[in-house]
From TrEMBL:
Lineage, opening ranks: Bacteria, Bacillati, Bacillota, Bacilli, Bacillales
GO MF annotation, one: peptidase activity
Region (Disordered): 552-598
Residue ranges with Basic and acidic residues bias: 571-596
Cross-referenced PANTHER family: PROTEIN-GLUTAMINE GAMMA-GLUTAMYLTRANSFERASE
Keyword set includes Membrane: yes
Protein name as annotated: Transglutaminase-like putative cysteine protease
Short name of any one Pfam family annotated for the protein: Transglut_core
Ranges for domain Transglutaminase-like: 473-547
SUPFAM superfamilies documented for this protein: Cysteine proteinases
A GO biological process held by the record: proteolysis
UniProt xrefs under InterPro entries: Bact_TGase-like, Papain-like_cys_pep_sf, TgpA_N, Transglutaminase-like
Amino acid sequence: MRYHHGFASFLLYCFGFVLVTEWIWPVKVLTDTANIWVFIVFLAVSFLLTYLGTPLIWSLAAKGMVIMYLLHWLYFEGSFLQLDWVMVFFQDIQQNIAFIFSANIPEVSNLFRSLLLFILLWLMTYLLHYWLIQRRRILLFFIMTIAYITVLDTFTPYEAANSIVRTVIIGFLCLGVLLFYRMRESEGMDGGFTSFRKWLFPLAVLLSLSVMLGFALPKQAPIWPDPVPYMQGLSSQTEGNQHAAVQRVGYGTDDSRLGGPFTGDSTVVFRTEVESSHYWKVETKDVYTGKGWIQSIQDAEAISFSQNSDTPVSSFAARNTRDKKAETSFVYQLKDYPHIIYPLGVKSIQSDYHAEFKFDPALEKIYSVDDSQSVALPSYSVTFEKAAYQKSDLTSVENASGISRDFMNRYTQLPETIPHRVRELAEEITAGKDNWFDQAKAIEQYLQGSHFSYDTKDVQIPGKNEDYVDQFLFESRRGYCDNFSSSMAALLRSIDIPARWVKGYTAGEFNGSNRNLQLYEITNDNAHSWVEVYFPDAGWVSFEPTPGFSNHVSFQSDEQGKNPAENTEPTPEKDAPKQEAEQPLEKTKTEEDHSSEQIWHNWKGAAERSWKWFAAAGITAAVLVLLLFRFRVKWLPYYYIWRFKRAVNDESFPEAYVILLKQLQRCGLKRNKGQTLREYALMIDKHFSTDEMTMLTVRYEQYLYGTGVEMGSWSEMMELWEYLIKRTIA
């Protein structure tokens, strides 16, 4: 049997070890196997013994002892040297062999299963040694490993994102080293460490650059959808259970059938700079179907408006002018959504990009358009009024007086199939509350109470004859924002309080501050739904029934509104005229700061959106520079020829001669220490079978030791110099 103990063979065994471990890691996720590290240790010992070329007898004994010790550590008490456990061990083997021959596989003990896995890894060690050292081929095992990992990643809970990268890197390195071995053995090449290093270094550099480019370059989204949710959904329909296929969290337009579990997604959708945190709206829906939400008016006529003009969104009642504060928030989109994400109370929208806006009154959804085509704005700002609602305005509403019948019919609609017990529950929760605000708060607090659990995994979908809200309120009592918000809207509507279902995003994750603005990052995980309730004296007011969430809505009592200490606006003092005199200067400075800040925001937004392209361009430029430097011996002569052909003075000859010496050194014709120029010239002429170098050197020595460059030296020597420097290219 052939053994090699050099560095290259050691690398091959290391590569083989990593490839085999990629088969072991999924076992921990897919089975109840614990202490995976013991199998990794045995695998490392086996490869080490094989690399050292340990005689067969000693190798069998060493591996057997390691297996026995590890099994003892896993399954037995006491000292390893107390041999009482050995008898139990062999009795267990005998019993499990009987189970196998009787096809009673479930009765096989964990001890015997571990022993079989150790034996399997032992065999894998031999196979890897055979493929790597004897055959010098590993492509089949490499492809099998890739297939194994990808299948597990697709059809099981095992996440192989890092595993697939490791496998590809190690696999290609292994293939490259094996190719070096095959070429060396077939061509009789020098197999020393220097040759191997010259082979391995460019291989590692090329592979590293490929991996970095793969990470940096943008990736196309999957062409085929994930098959697992489809199969789970098909299984659900076939078996008749009430669990839906797993969905992925994020904004979507179809809400006609809600329910079922979902998985998280931390993909960043947009970033914001705000004066104070708030929710972000996308759309509202007003018709509850018993399974989900749809809009009452299809293809409503859109209302057009331009930048800086008032939006047609009616958030507050016309007579509600108390305690509203104007704020501006900046949005930097990382997803190409053609809709505008805006807060409650939006007044106007501004952007540095050319665009107009269209408002869908049925959904209260705003689209950005350019020449009647939907476009995605990379960045924009929204100015809005942030209200601090007075409780007296809200608690004074006890009925629908002053609200049109059509409005009430639209926002108190419920399907005829909704069970009566939903209304009974709403009446029970709001018993003793005589106004809409207290009733809405009672329902909100009830849903946030201990009766219900927030969960995104174990979430049911209602059956064919079940109502989505009823099933959540009375059966599962487990769900996420869609369950809680839909239930609150339905409970409110059942007692004739107008409410609507709102979709959008929470404030997101705080990411620092910039001057007086707070920075937030909003991902798909922040997609959310909540409820808005209509009050005649206030307009639409947001409520948050989902446990663990807060929509930052402020409700103030009249005492708070009258207390100067509570006011957000400063009280004028005696020096107010002085402040007014300084105001124009402050305004100009603010406008200048905002202009420079807006430029910075635009650059920052462009960098955040295109960082992958910048990274790819930077890496590509670095690769080109490295390649130019690496192969400068091939292209530098052409540059020097172009440069010196334009020179007409004789003073160019000494410089050209020195450049020729450097070029000869670069192409491998090095000048020995102590060697004179004349001796070096003879060596060059012998190498190229010419006498041009000697002629050039004689003229150069005349320059060094004589009176200078003779007239016409460069014109005479130019052709000789050009001939020699061209020869270095080959």
